[in-house]
Fold these 2 entries.
Entry 1:
Amino acid sequence: TADPVTHPDTAPASDALLARARSVIPGGVNSPVRAFRSVGGTPRFMERAQGPWLWDADGRRYLDLVCSWGPMILGHAHPEVRAAVTEAAAQGFSFGMPTAREVALAEEIVARVEPVEQVRLVSSGTEATMSAIRLARGFTGRSVVVKFAGCYHGHVDALLASAGSGVATFGLPDSPGVPASAAGETVVLPYNDVPALEAAFAERGSEIAAVITEAAAGNMGVVPPAPGFTEALRRLTRAHGALLVSDEVMTGFRCSASGWLGLEGVPEGGAPDLFTFGKVMGGGFPAAAFGGRADVMARLAPDGPVYQAGTLSGNPVASAAGLATLQRCTDEVYQRLDEVSEALAAAVTDAFSRHGIPHRIQWAGSMFSVFFREGQVTGYEDAKDQDTALFGRFFHAMLRRGVHLPPSCFESWFVSAAHDDEAVEHAVRAIGQSAAEIA
Ligand code: PLP
């Protein structure tokens, strides 16, 4: 077949927009990884999207393997979700008062994730983890939080230590602006390392309010929990009176209808105490949530003393988008995500093996990532030990062939149920030819 290179490396309309953006927005972007710094070149400014396809400001079409970093599980501008959004918007955008739509979204989440008895809706994953940490501290009366290297939980001060993708992409150790006092209450441990966890609890168990973990890590590339890791988290937190917070912002409603928990099942010893959600549950709009045990959630204002609030929390348009999306996340949708991911991963394995490109593919449900190295990746040190420059060349080879990958090798690839056979064939062809190009 003909080489499907369709796009030149230069993108005049995006260049012009980036120049304009840079004068009014730091770096020209509103979230750092969008800037293409780790792969070089001009980020493509997008104009519209439909199903699995994106069109940039130069009118070029790309197959989308980012899916807005997870939310667009049904594909872009799904007609029924769009109708729900339009209907909600026609009734008003935001009231600052309770609405039926947010109740329905909360009910949908509680119905799907069995251990979640109550949820509070917020507007971003960052807000969800920030609030869950505050609640855990308020509930336990303790202040230390344990997190794992390479896990990202949003840009919360206490959690922005050794935080994976965005920070890894920029090679920053941590962020200036996070006070030592905030970071000092955070203990960072290697992921999947039970002895390190045991040692931390032996030393500071009575000070630990919570352990927060990505249900399956997706921000250092995809690194699922090793067998027994989640059980150890449950056992040690319970033994020491700390809460276990499972961050399902990325995995929630994507790995299965009930997220990673639905795939892995409730760990021996019991479910996590709190969960955080975002991405898919907002259907592309700003909606996120934290929730869990009713006795813990009861400590939140207005019933309890732990304060948490939001002008746009439970926004009716975002709730309508989230609800319409979740209601359409059927078995067939998850089956299609699996088929598409498996076809793409098989194409990578085939092409990279044929051309002698080192690679390792890891999975969490239909989420997968390609590490540009050999050998199992169990944590952040392994993940950092890969050929990021080679990834950059692969990224641009794919972009030229009209496929938009996440612009960092520390990210999961995301697909949607709208990725039809044409989309898969397009990606498979591009993968084969891009591998040949970079070999
Ligand atoms: N937690 C996890 C696991 C995430 O992947 C992310 C974002 O990528 C967040 C939290 C933060 O969510 P948001 O970007 O909506 O603030």
Entry 2:
Amino acid sequence: PTESLEGRVTTTEQATSVFLDAARGASTPRAPIWLMRQAGRYLPEYRALKERHSFWEMCRTPEIAAEVTLQPLRRFPMDAAIIFSDIMTPLPPMGVPVDFAPGPTIREPVRTADDVARLAVPPGAEIAPFVADAIRLAREQSPVPVIGFAGAPLTVAGYAVQGAGSADYADFRTWLRREPLVAHDLLDKLAAVTAAYLREQIAAGAEAVQLFDSWAGIHDRRTYATFGMPYARRVLDELAGAGVPRIYLAVGASHLYPQIARLPAEVVSVDWRQPLDVSRAALPGKVMQGNLDPTVLLADEEAVVAAGRQVLVDGLGGPHIFNLGHGVLPGTPPANVARLVDLVHEYPRDTGKA
Ligand code: 1CP
């Protein structure tokens, strides 16, 4: 064991982790907590690095990516770290350049059968070796498990075809109707690359993986059944033997829970639109991750405590990993994050039934 951040003891084996216990479905004396986008623009130390380096430079330099991964752990005793990267990372090695402004922009969106035929499917080790290196470095210094991640095929395809983030992805949804065969070819390639990429992250030391299907919820059930679920399933299936918990995230997707319930993921990350106990009932056997509304962290401490307690109570019906329903918003006061982490750590699950 070596002394690490905040004097907490760590071993490379991560002998005990309340996060991993909960992710594997064990009942834990308290809920573990980590936050999506816990590294990022709301932290002054992140903004300081960002002044000197572009987003891609930060992702592609393992020392910087590992440093940014660890920044939130120096402030808050989170129970897990998520490697600093982006869901766009596998696109450039496939032949699709991506800029950040600050959201992803793709100057030449993927649209035609030729565009898709030209896409490369690089072997795992060649997709993003800098991410594997960053995971190794972060693991050496992190007192808690490091989570690897990737975007789900349908969500990454949304950016690749639309050309940028969008409130409704109207061009992408139209394209799925016009070009279903091309869409299947694109999703097929994305699924192969995503599975290989996640396997590399696990080999480098990621102790859990999260598949971000952030925009799954904009699709109707039939479209998700055709273009979403089968490709998410393929990625998750390919990780079945890897021995790490798989987390699947979808936002605004309660209409898809009958399908998501059958995905081979141990954990489902759910948003704030309905209470955790309601989502849990629709996702039998799944560990719940979530689901505080990120705007609560923009309000005051009283709001954080009241809404945070409600999430804890709603989560008592089974294994629960505390998180937000979506990422930390820029402008979030770090003091509110600190208060939330303390609240979750001090709330006993065994005697906590209100
Ligand atoms: O200027 C900057 O600082 C860049 C902002 C930024 C950051 C900090 C982007 C651009 N990406 C990231 C890091 C990032 N992205 C992480 C690691 C940090 C952490 O979680 O602590 C992760 C997990 C992501 C994943 C990601 N990127 C998702 C899935 C999660 C979600 O929010 O649903 C999505 C949809 C993206 C796309 C993306 N990249 C960046 C932005 C601002 C966005 C979303 C907005 C858009 O669609 O335009």
